[in-house]
From TrEMBL, chain A:
GO biological process: phospholipid translocation
Protein name stated in the entry: Cell cycle control protein
CC per GO annotation: apical plasma membrane; endoplasmic reticulum; Golgi apparatus; transport vesicle membrane
Transmembrane segments annotated in the record for this chain: 46-72, 331-353
Organism: Astatotilapia calliptera
UniProtKB/TrEMBL annotation, chain B:
Domain P-type ATPase N-terminal: from-to ranges: 32-85
Regions that span the bilayer: 286-311, 841-862, 892-914, 929-948, 960-981, 1001-1023
Localization of this protein: Endomembrane system; Membrane
Protein family: Belongs to the cation transport ATPase (P-type) (TC 3.A.3) family. Type IV subfamily.
Organism: Haplochromis burtoni (Burton's mouthbrooder)
Official protein name in the record: Phospholipid-transporting ATPase
Pfam families the record matches: Cation_ATPase, E1-E2_ATPase, PhoLip_ATPase_C, PhoLip_ATPase_N
Residues in P-type ATPase C-terminal domain copies: 778-1025
Positions of the P-type ATPase A domain: 115-179
Reactions catalysed according to its record: ATP + H2O + phospholipidSide 1 = ADP + phosphate + phospholipidSide 2
One MF annotation (Gene Ontology) recorded for this entry: ATPase-coupled intramembrane lipid transporter activity
Length: 368, 1066
């Protein structure tokens, strides 16, 4: 429709030089359609104080309760956070942090004691938190090979260039290649409950279910063709900073070994901000009424493998319960209460305006 | 049949050899080098299209900029792949190339039509068919009736006995009447064996002068197609925005680069153990690194100026212009055509017009003369019935049925005979004449019983009231010329009486007649002139045999003179046209175009200043201005013409100086401040061509260069300006002067003839009227409309809407990219200034192309914030958008603030949320791509809903694209994240969107941030009272108050006395 009309127009415009102008043009009367005459039926909403007023009140009335609900929910989430970096000399991990070297066979272990004042009900989630760690640095974010991680055999032995300088170790390609994989968080955290008898009871930590289901089952795959991971990875080298190769990440569980190791997958999902937390373990709630983590003294046993002081980083361990909205975060509640209040307040202001200039508004509502 | 010689208009005086036979007398024959007769208006050939077109395209600063960005992406390791900018750029370049290629193809076609036109050439005594483009200078051509001259010609031989031919120059000067041209004397010999040379003078730009030689026939001027120029206000805004944005990008990139190096200077930050540089990066020079970092940032932030904005704007202009050609209100059933859009680049300029320059003849008036009344011996004869007008001398009634109060029968018949004889009209299926006035007069005489039957071998036949045929021998025609402003014929009646009849402007006739007759007639003439009629006085004189012999020999001598022929003829004319007897005067009306007055009134109501530029005489033009209500009863006229400059004892220059100062004082200095302008005095300014050239060319004299300024200021403070006696180039000069004046206002020229082409091309917007006078104006215009009355809807309706639409489009684009890129910029502070993109590459690329482009395109095509009827009814609405009101600092600041606010809300809202990234109810955490996706989702929804809030006119298309875009975004995100794409190196978004939607927190934050972003907008809309209802309400009041000027009668009653100068035949 448009094209034909354009042609007609052009023909007309490029008339030959002859001055006998009229004549040839026939049936050029434009179609009298609503579309072409710009007369399509249209809805013409007019926002006036009168029509917006109820909306503001309704929004206010909905948002404020939601906000309060969110705030309360967030407040009910119990969270405990402890920094175990070992910066100050009185910190238990001071020595481990200070004397860190890469090529050590003897792991440095330190123990941090802490007390939970309140019991943690329901499932408790254990996170490790890093600060001043730029997982979102561009050079870092791109330094991975998703093909390799997806089990592609060619990428296994010939990783992407993006992995540089963690692409090859000598002539052997690294699996998993890249800076992200290389810097896998490898502190081991073990939690003990110290009961009233001063005896340590190890808190059972579940290491599955911490990664996105799709990541674990689709995005990350071990190299195909060989059920024996050791053989599957035989032509590759371990990342430079790793103590052990990828096929020994969790020798006890073949479903959690190699590329599909959940700790590894969680690490590979790069964090948005330089201060972040990543899910480490889940403490399943116990049957019955006993709290998952009763209040009392705890002992956190850390195998200190991960140096952060060189870039002024911090390491934390976080215990948190979870609600339907995720972890503890008062922001949403506050935001909802604020926006709800603003709407309500504006509603009141508009109501005043509406009443004061009533005449003006009614006359403005005359439809066109 | 007329045979002619080509005379090509080339610069410089040249000798042309007729029929390529050099005169034997010539010593040396130098083959003259003339260019061929081909018309080339096309730009490209098949071979040079690609390189030339690409070169042209990349000369546009925007395209060049995107090319640079693309090259940077290819060369430097940048955060986004070259595809993100390369693909849209390729798309834009291809689409533009196709469009331009198609347009050029059409031009080729049009050129070929003219160039392959068959003409007959006489070569060595044979008639040869040739193509028009192969005509060489010096060829002898044969042109048949109704053919167009394929080139400039000299008339050598005509099939008519008297060696004349009639030519219409409608396509040249806009005059549709017939002009008589004469063969070159002494070429009665056989043209086939003619040996001749022609010395042709240098071509003159002044069309009127060039037309002077009466045996020179000018080729139908084919002016080149209008170079497409883009809308000024938008381009200015574009350039401005791009510069601003360019600065923003540069400053952002600079800030980030600096911060990056500051941040890196802290130990352990540049290269922590977990994130080492590659060997290559380590080896590169620090400054080179800085530079590439800088470039990378630029690439990252360059999305703020999206290529797609150009695509969208181009599309909006292209598609939007269809609404003009589709408008059935522009359809004229008479010529069976609607409006025509030659360029779509200027749609929005139609909403910004401040000055309208209009031609008079054929544009304001129909160029259709009608005999209204005459006056014989001071007695008024009005043809129209039922008139009770009382004049100082007689009561008007029907034609000649009473004896009482009438002139004597003899005088009446003498007057009518004069009308029948004194003209150059030919009879041929009606009357043909070089002036429509003459036809009107002959027809007028017919109504009173005297019919001109025709001219046969120098004998004029008249059918008189008693149905007898009277025969007169036509002895001489003393042609009309603009200096004498009169024409005469000398005839001999059967009875042997020799009579001279003369008609002309009152100013040229009155001094040449016996004075006692003048006063009776003068009153009539002046009254008629005030009424807007064209008046002519008729006089006669008896010539005795001796007198005639003297005149006859004088004329013959003068005509054969080789030198100063014109002057000699003039002397004889002046000598004979003295001592005549005044018989009467005629009044002819030049009909106004349909709704001309209403249209002009609407334009003035819209705050547009209307200037009438005409080649016509002042009085005629002035009366038209009154009839069009450009000058109103209370308008004070300031006149700056040759007449007012003539003042005893003073040099014209001094007088000009005084007048300019006086008018300047009156209009500019004494004018009340702008706020109270409404009640102030209206001024009308009249200037003529001669005075104008004095003003414009006065720079040589001392301290006179500011005349132009003074003149311009006076003009700008007058509601209407009338420029009469303008040559076409002077029209363009005027337009140019206003166009380049302070504030560079948008100018619009409207005309229908080729004499208007220069001003149509000069003005920002050129409008051609598809009138009777050929197609030149239409071909060279940007828009062509069938009638003047359509201008109102074109400007007030379409122009207004287009401007609002495109202004909103551009600003919205700017806004949505500002709040798109701002989070990206802010993110740099949280990622070590490493150019890490916040959004996935797919989102970066698709944001402007798919997710947010269609709603704004639909808006910019269909929005009617005020209905068209309302816009047409209330011309004052046009003032609201005047002076580029929507693209000024205020609105720009508003959009900027809104964009910044939204960007901040999006980024920091999500930032606060991500202070604890464990957002899923299973404790799992979100990463950086989730962060970006949440921000992006809020962004897409907010900018789309913001547009929805702005939309005042929701058609189903708007609904479809707005909700469709949002649905498409959701669908695309699912799809994009749902598959492991084999061609992607990184599966960044794999199930990110789905996981985001599984998180209640993400939902909640999206909802609250969208609402928070839109709150100020809603508030603004509510409190400001949107244009629609507020304007409407204001209008209700204003129309009730009766601000609109009442519909006065088309012919204002004027008590103004006109000067002695009056109208003449043109």
């Amino acid at each position: 429709m448009m094209a034909s009309s354009y042609n007609a127009k052009e023909e007309d415009g490029h008339h030959s030089g002859a001055s006998s102008g009229t004549g040839l043009s026939k049936n050029k009367k434009p179609d009298n359609t609503a579309f072409k005459q710009q007369r399509l039926p249209a809805w013409q909403p007019i926002l006036t104080a009168g029509s917006v007023l109820p909306a503001f009140f309704v929004i206010g009335l909905i948002f404020i309760p939601i906000g309060i609900g969110l705030y309360v929910t967030s407040n009910n989430i119990k969270e405990f956070e402890i920094d175990y970096t070992g910066v100050s000399s009185d910190s238990p991990c001071y020595n481990c942090a200070k004397n860190f070297t890469w090529n050590t066979t003897e792991p440095c272990v330190c123990t941090v004691n802490f007390t939970l004042l309140q019991p943690f009900e329901s499932n408790v989630f254990m996170y490790y938190g890093l600060s001043n760690f730029y997982q979102n640095h561009r050079r870092y974010v791109k330094s991975r090979d998703d093909r390799q991680l997806n089990g592609d055999l060619s990428a296994l032995t010939d990783p992407s260039k993006e992995c540089e300088p963690y692409r090859k170790s000598g002539d052997v390609s690294i699996a998993p290649c890249g800076a992200i994989a290389n810097s896998l968080f490898n502190d081991t955290l073990v939690l003990y409950y110290v009961d009233s008898n001063n005896s340590k009871i190890e808190v059972p930590l579940v290491k599955k279910g911490i990664a996105w289901w799709t990541d674990k089952h689709v995005k990350f795959r071990n190299p195909a063709g060989n059920s024996n991971l050791t053989l599957a990875f035989r032509d590759t080298a371990k990342p430079v900073n790793w103590a052990k190769p990828v096929y020994e990440l969790d020798p006890s569980d073949p479903d959690n070994n190699g590329f599909i190791n959940e700790d590894f997958i969680v690490w590979m999902r790069t964090a948005a901000l330089p201060t972040f937390r990543k899910l480490y373990r889940i403490i399943q709630k116990k049957s019955g009424t006993t709290p998952t983590l009763p209040n009392g003294n705890y002992m956190l046993n850390i195998t200190y493998n991960y140096p952060v002081l060189s870039f002024d980083g911090r390491k934390r361990m976080i215990l948190s319960t979870i609600s339907w909205m995720g972890g503890k975060n008062p922001f949403l509640g506050i935001a909802y209460i604020t926006v709800g209040s603003i709407c309500f307040f504006l509603g009141v202001v508009l109501l005043i305006i509406h009443h004061k200039y009533d005449n003006r508004n009614t006359s403005a509502d005359i439809p066109s | 049949l007329s045979s002619s010689i080509e005379n090509h208009r080339t610069l410089g005086s040249r000798t042309i050899y007729v029929g390529h036979r050099p005169c034997p007398a010539n010593e040396v024959f130098i083959p003259p080098k003339f260019c061929d007769n081909r018309i080339v208006s096309s730009k490209y050939t098949v071979w040079n299209f690609l390189p030339k077109n690409l070169f042209e395209q990349f000369r546009r600063i925007a395209n060049f900029y995107f090319l640079i960005i693309f090259l940077v992406q290819v060369i430097v390791d940048t955060p986004t792949s070259p595809v993100t900018s390369g693909l849209p750029l390729f798309f834009v370049i291809t689409v533009t190339a196709i469009k331009q290629g198609y347009e050029d193809w059409l031009r080729h076609k049009a050129d070929n039509e003219v160039n392959k036109y068959r003409v007959t050439v006489l070569e060595d005594g044979r008639r040869i068919q040739k193509e028009s483009e192969k005509i060489k200078v010096g060829d002898v051509l044969e042109v048949e009736e109704d053919e167009t001259f394929p080139c400039d010609l000299i008339l050598l031989q005509s099939s008519r006995d008297d060696g004349t031919c009639f030519v219409t120059t409608a396509s040249l000067d806009g005059e549709s009447n017939h002009k008589t041209h004469y063969t070159v004397p002494d070429t009665e010999r056989d043209v086939e064996s003619l040996n001749a040379t022609i010395e042709c003078e240098q071509p003159q730009p002044d069309l009127y002068k060039s037309l002077g030689p009466e045996n020179l026939l000018l080729k139908g001027a084919t002016l080149k197609n209008t170079q497409s120029i883009c809308g000024k206000s938008i381009i200015a805004f574009f350039t401005g925005t791009i510069l601003k944005m360019g600065k923003t990008i540069l400053s952002k990139a600079l800030v980030c680069t600096t911060l990056k190096y500051v941040w890196q200077s802290k130990p352990g930050q540049d290269e922590p153990w977990y994130n080492e540089k590659t060997l290559k990066e380590k080896e590169t020079n620090l400054y080179l690194n800085m530079f590439t970092d800088f470039l990378s940032f630029m690439v990252l932030f360059n999305f703020i100026i999206p290529v797609s904005m150009y695509v969208t704007v181009e599309m909006q202009k292209f598609l939007g212009s269809f609404f003009i050609s589709w408008d059935k209100d522009f359809f004229d059933s008479e010529i069976e055509e609607g409006a025509l859009v030659n360029t779509s680049d200027l749609n929005e300029e139609l909403g910004q017009v401040e000055y309208v320059f209009t031609d008079k003849t054929g544009t304001l008036t129909q160029n259709n003369m009608e005999f209204i009344e005459c006056c014989i011996d001071g007695h008024q004869y009005k043809y129209r019935d039922a008139s009770s007008e009382v004049d100082g001398f007689c009561v008007t009634d029907g034609p000649m049925n009473t004896v009482q109060q009438k002139a004597g029968r003899e005088r009446e018949e003498l007057f009518l005979r004069a009308l029948c004889l004194c003209h150059t009209v030919q009879v041929k299926e009606g009357f043909i004449a070089s002036s429509p006035d003459e036809i009107a007069l002959v027809q007028g005489a017919m109504r009173y019983g005297f019919t001109f039957l025709g001219l046969e071998s120098k004998t004029m036949k008249i059918l008189n009231r008693t149905n007898d045929v009277e025969m007169y021998e036509l002895l001489h025609v003393l042609n009309f010329d603009p200096v004498r402003r009169r024409m005469s014929v000398i005839v001999r009646s059967i009875s042997g009486e020799t009579l001279l009849f003369c008609k002309g402007a009152d100013s040229s006739i009155f001094p040449r007649v016996k004075q006692e007759e003048v006063e009776k007639i003068r009153m009539h003439v002046e009254r008629n002139a005030t009424d807007g009629y064209r008046t002519l006085c008729v006089a006669y004189k008896h010539l005795t045999a001796e007198e005639y012999d003297q005149v006859d020999s004088g004329l013959r001598e003068a005509r054969l003179a080789l030198q100063d022929r014109e002057e000699k003829l003039m002397a004889v004319y002046n000598q004979v046209e003295t001592g005549m007897n005044l018989i009467g005067a005629t009044a002819v009306e030049d009909r106004l175009q349909e709704e001309a007055a209403e249209t002009m009134e609407a334009l003035q109501g819209a705050g547009i200043k209307v200037w009438v530029l005409t080649g016509d005489k002042m009085e005629t033009a002035k009366s038209t201005c009154y009839a069009c209500r450009l000058f109103k009863r209370n308008t004070e006229l300031l006149e700056l013409t040759v007449r007012t400059l003539e003042s005893p004892g003073k040099r014209r220059e001094d007088r000009l100086h005084d007048l300019l100062l006086e008018y300047h004082k009156k209009t500019v200095q004494d004018a009340p401040p702008a706020k109270t302008r409404v009640a102030s005095q209206d001024y009308g300014f009249i200037v003529d061509g001669a005075t104008l050239s004095m003003v414009l060319n006065s720079s040589s004299e001392n301290n006179l260069h500011d005349y132009k300024d003074l003149f311009l200021q006076i003009c700008q403070n007058c509601t209407s300006v009338l420029c009469c006696r303008m040559a076409p180039l002077q029209k363009a000069q005027i337009v140019k002067m206003v166009k380049n004046s302070k504030g560079s206002p948008i100018t619009l020229s409207i005309g229908d003839g080729a004499n208007d082409v220069s001003m149509i091309l000069e003005a920002h917007v050129g409008i051609g009227i598809k009138g009777k006078e050929g197609r030149q104006a239409v071909r060279n215009s940007d828009y062509a409309i069938p009638k003047l009355k359509h201008l109102k809807k074109l400007l007030l309706g379409h122009g207004h809407l287009y401007y609002v639409r495109i202004a909103h489009l551009v600003q919205y684009f700017f806004y949505k990219n500002l709040c798109f890129i701002l989070p990206q910029f802010l993110y740099q502070f949280f990622c070590g200034c490493s150019q890490q993109p916040l959004y996935d590459a797919a989102y970066l690329t698709m944001y402007n192309i798919c997710f947010t482009s269609m709603p704004i395109l639909a808006y910019s095509l269909f929005e009617q914030h005020i209905s068209i009827e309302m816009l047409l009814e209330n011309a004052t609405l046009y003032r609201q958008i005047g002076k580029n009101a929507m693209l000024r600092w205020g609105p720009f600041l508003y959009w900027t603030l809104l964009g910044v606010f939204h960007g901040l809300v999006f980024f920091f809202g999500v930032w606060f949320l991500f202070s604890n990234p464990a957002l899923q109810d299973n404790g799992q955490a979100f990463g950086n791509w989730s962060y970006g996706t949440i921000v992006f989702t809020i962004l897409v929804f907010t900018v789309t809903l913001k547009l929805a809030l702005d939309t005042r006119h929701w058609t189903w298309i708007n609904h479809f694209v707005i909700w469709g875009s949002l649905a498409f975004y959701v669908f695309f995100s699912f799809f994009w994240g749902g598959v492991i794409w084999p061609f992607l190196r990184q599966q960044r978004l794999y199930f990110v969107f789905a996981n985001m939607l599984s998180s209640v927190s993400a939902w909640l934050v999206i909802i609250v941030l969208i609402l928070l972003s839109l709150l100020p907008e809603i508030l603004y809309v509510v409190l400001r009272k949107p244009r629609g209802p507020y304007a409407r309400q204001k209008l209700v009041q204003s129309s009730a108050g009766g601000i609109q000027s009442p519909r006065s009668s088309a012919r204002p009653l004027l008590m103004r006395t006109f000067s002695d100068e009056s109208n003449t035949v043109s």
